[in-house]
Amino acid sequence: MQSYSHTLTQSIDPSYTFTSDSQKLVKAIILKSSSKELHGILYDILQLTTLFSSISLIFVPRSANIHSDKLVKEALGNLVLDPA
Predict the structure, then answer these.
(1) Hey, which bits of 11-81 come out as E strands?
(2) Has residue 42 got a pLDDT over 70?
(3) Rounded to the nearest 10 degrees, how much is the dihedral formed by the CA atoms of 48, 52, 56, 59?
(4) Between 39-49 and 23-31, two packed helices, what is the crossing angle to 10 degrees?
């Protein structure tokens, strides 16, 4: 696992800009605050942010991001969960 973390860290650009159409999520990440509905994803995101030396978060209204929203919905629709 340690070599995997090192490889992952080495392969990711140290600074990055992330966008989201969830204003509530962007605020929670910036403030490092949590709510019941965001707890799991917020924890995962905050863990991943440690891989970057610098990140920026930007709220983008869904209406201004229709193409990306469609791609995400299609990907989630194709996601197969293992019931076992």
Answers:
(1) 15-20, 54-59
(2) yes
(3) -20
(4) 60
